[in-house]
Structures are given as C-alpha cells and as structure tokens.
Amino acid sequence: MCSATTDPGRSTSRNGSVRKVAWASAIGSTIEWYDFFLYGTAAALVFDSQFFPGLDPAVGTIAAFGTLTAGFLARPLGGVIFGHFGDRAGRRNTLIVSLLLMGLATTMVGALPTYADVGIWAPVLLVLLRLVQGIGLGGEWGGAIVLTLEHAPEDRKGFYGSFPQLGTPAGLILANGAFLGCLAVVGKEEFVQWGWRIVFLISIALVAVGLYLRVHVQESPEYVRTAQRKQVDRAPAAVVFSQHWKPLIHATLVIVGNSTAAYIFMVYVLSYGTTAQNLSRPFVLGCVILGSAAWLVSVPFWARLGDKFGLRAVFVHGSVIRLVWCLAFFPIVNTGNEPIILLFMVSMGLVLSVTNAPIGTLTAGFFPVEVRYSGASISYQIGSLLGGGITPLVASALFTTTQSSWSVTAYLLAISVVSLAASNAIPRRDAAPVHEASAPTEVR
C-alpha cells in the first residue's frame, strides 16, 4: 500500500500530532455519519407516513428507502468533487467544507414541510436534501482516512487509520439513541408527527463542534511534500479512472460486501423487525445500539492486530466470519426470541468490526499520494452504493415479492462471496503493511 517515508527526527511531536488528527477525524466522521444515519433510521420508521402517505405501507417503505438510495447515488459524485479538491488543494480544508455541507443539509431536513403541507413538493425536497447529504458524505470518508493515514507513523498506520472508522458505529449509536430518547420523551404519536424533527435540527450544534476540531489540525505532511514537489495532478479523478482503474475496481469489490452486510444490520432490520416480525421499535433500536457499541469498542483491537499480523490477513478472515453471520441473520431474527436476537445483534457488531477496522487503511493504500483522496473516495462510495445504497431497497423489494427472508439471505450470500473473492485476491507481502509508492503495492 501507499504511504510516505517516515522521518525519524520528528517522532515525539508527530505522535502528539497524529493523535490530535486521529481524534478530530473520528469525531468529525461521527458527526457526518450521525447526520447520514438519521436519515436511514427515519426512512425505516417515519418517512413513509410523513412523505408518502397515499401509498400502501409496504410500497411506502420501499419509496422511503428509495430516497435513502438517492443519497448513495450522489456519494460517488461527492467523491469525485471532494477528491479533486482534496488532491489539488489539500485534505484539511476540503474536509471542513464537506462537514459543513452535510450538517446544513441535515438541519434543513428537520425543517421540511410534509406531504400534508405541500403535497408532492415534500418528497421532492426530501430527495434533493438527501442528494446534498450524499455529496457531502462522499467527500468525508476518503478525506478522513487519508488525512489520518498520512499523519500516522509507519508501524501504526492500521491503528490510527481505524479512527475514522469509529465514526460509523458511533454515528449509528448517536442517531438511533437520539431517536430512541426522543420517542421515549414525546411518545409514539407525537414522535411520528413532529418529534422526529428534533434529532435533525440539533445536528447544527454537532457540526459547530466538528468544525472547531478540524480547523485546528494540520495539513497532511505527505500532501505538503507532494505539493512542494509540484506532483499534484490537474485532474486527479481522471487519472484514477485512466491509470488506476484496476485498483479502483479491486477496492470497490473489497468494500461492497462490508457495506451490504452493514446496512442490513444498521438500517433494513429496523423496518423488517418491526413490520415482518412485530418486534417493538424500542427493542430493535436498542439491539442496533448495543450491537454498534460492541462494534465501536472492538475496532481498535482488530486494527492493532492488523499492524501486527497484516491488514489483509485480518480482513480476509473477518470476511469469512461475516459471510457465516449473514447466513444466520434472518433465521435468528425470525425466531422472534428477543434475548437470542439481542445476543446475535451484539455478536453481529463484533463481526462487522473485524472488516470495518482495516478497510480504510487497506483500500486507501491502493492509490499513490497524488490521487489518494480521489481514489479512496471514489472506490469507497461506488462500493457503498452497490452495497449499502441499494441493499435496503433491494431487500424490501425481495421480501415484498417473495414474502420470504431467504431471498434476502441469498442476495447477501451472493454479494459476500464476490467480495470475499476480491479480498482474497489482495496480494500478500512480508514487509511492513504500508509503503510509499506511485502505484498500488502488495500488503500482507
């Protein structure tokens, strides 16, 4: 994988700097994922009645998940746009803009009129804001990973590169916790009518915190050296598609399986559990929160193992375990046995963290410094679109058509097998996990 050569004379100051950058990336990423997951949770629980009230409930759920997918369609575009400026103008300032864009769009969702107020314009505006969210998040993940990775010391790139990954489960916990808390305070009827808006509107305060942190971090030293050598590409996205298309496809296929499984766990189960299995909303939300907590606390452990034994080894073994858990997911949920479901959801969080922890460092390293922001962002966002973006929509359509969760399980299995094959095709290497190069290099 790609990286810069470590300067031995700056180790002490650099350790303090990388910790600051890592935590700023983790917190900023958490806020962006909180914003993004709010929408996914609301699509599963609220948006069908507020923005698509004239539709059959099942069709309304599909329509609500369709607006969720719209955000994923915009994420590759965001990856191209923010990747361009991240590779040409610097990582830090680009991340500040992406956070601001995301936060403003989320806050505006909380102020939207519903279908009862303005008719068809309500879902139209909802989709437009979701597209803006998608563009903002499209520039977030790759930038946070790259900025942290390029600050990290050679022997701890896996560990520090996992910090932005903490944002996914942490944002999910905050989003679902906010919904659960609001539901408990205002009651079910008020929550559906207006209470859901609160969790969107408070996003503006979280964005202010994230902006403060990002303003006070330094630019990537690797990017600074690249800019000083005048090796910045005029059109980095075009270079990725023309010169690095093989690692782009490879990284996308590695990412798609992780994203598909995660969005079944994070989003689709909220709808499936409450409608198909008649589980209570607080219980299903609580399961997702506890599973996400297990995911969150275990990420650093797997990242450290990646630094010790190799990122590839951890990821491939984790992909096999994740495939088995995907096969068991719906049969367990279909039991309706709440203690068993809760235990399984917690274990699912632990399983997802095995592949989530190293995936950023692993795939960002497929690309050289001068186009790394673009390459990491575009591959991740395309993988997320093909995985998480369409998964809730496809799962809802499959279950509505077949009335069987086995059709969804078969879909999960097919994606998991393809992604596992791509993960296993990552070449081995006996040297350090991350290396400087102008092209993708092998990893352990």
TrEMBL record:
Residues annotated as domain Major facilitator superfamily (MFS) profile: 21-431
Recorded family membership: Belongs to the major facilitator superfamily. Metabolite:H+ Symporter (MHS) family (TC 2.A.1.6) family.
Membrane topology: Multi-pass membrane protein
Naturally occurring in which organism (per UniProt): Saccharopolyspora elongata
Keywords in alphabetical order: Cell membrane, Membrane, Symport, Transmembrane, Transmembrane helix, Transport
Ranges annotated as spanning the membrane: 21-47, 59-83, 95-116, 166-187, 194-213, 248-271, 283-303, 309-333, 340-366, 378-399, 406-426
Compartments where located: Cell membrane
GO molecular function, one term: symporter activity
Protein name according to UniProt: Putative proline/betaine transporter
Listed Pfam families: MFS_1 (PF07690)
Function: May be a proton symporter involved in the uptake of osmolytes such as proline and glycine betaine.
Predominant cellular place of this UniProt entry's protein: membrane
Xref: InterPro entries: MFS, MFS_dom, MFS_trans_sf, Sugar_transporter_CS
GO cellular component, one term: plasma membrane
Xref: PROSITE patterns: MFS, SUGAR_TRANSPORT_2
UniProt entry tagged with the keyword Transmembrane helix: yes
